[in-house]
Amino acid sequence: MTPDSSKSIPTFYAGQSILLTGATGFMGKVFIEKVLRTCSDVREIFLVIRPKKGLSVNQRLEKILHLPLYERLRNERPFSFQKLIPISGDATEKGFGLSASDRQMLIERVTIIVHGSASVRFNNTLQFAIFTNTRATRDICILAQNMKNLLAVVHISTAFAHVNESIVEEKVYPSIADWRKMITIAESLDEHTLNIFTAK
Asked: Domain Thioester reductase (TE), which positions (predicted)?
């Protein structure tokens, strides 16, 4: 399928199955609210959520949906929350730690990927940052290659790239290090050794 650029956003999303990573982050929460409120004909939104602090993915989603951000949807379109399908996954795990059945379901049904999971903290370990920001993006691309009906992949990236530049142009900047090698190093070395490299 080829996207039609003349379509309105609600028309484009009508009948689509979206995979959203980073669903519990700021941008993810806003994306969920905006799509459910303005694109009423979206088919479903799969949300990759990590179980955390003793809460299951369903419990975490329930907690999120009680935020003031979703008050209007709760009042006007509470049935729209039924389109949200939480899936257990973790951006720090290889392949997002998806179960085989969840992975297959996504391959069969997803038409749009919005990859928003990332670590934007500057004090994370190098290994954590590489796994979350680099390997997770690679793994989403690998998953996307297997999807049968994929229309679009959107990558939400941090604004804090190339902060050493006084003017950031609309271009792809050369990388200081090869991302493939960085993943291999992060997977091969223990966290303590990587932390020594980080300090240097």
From this structure: 20-180
Cα(18)–Cα(85) distance, integer angstroms = 10
pLDDT tens for 139-198 read 999 999 999 999 999 999 876 666 778 888 888 888 888 989 999 999 998 888 887 877
Segments of 62-180 assigned E as strands: 84-88, 112-115, 152-155
Is residue 196 within 8 A of residue 155, CB to CB? The reply is no
| Coarse DSSP helix, strand, coil percentages of the chain, rounded to the nearest 5 percent | 50, 15, 40
What single-letter DSSP state applies at residue 131?
A: I
Name the DSSP class of 174: P
What is the C-alpha separation between 35 and 17, in angstroms, rounded?
12
The sign of the dihedral angle between the CA atoms of 143, 145, 149, 154 is positive
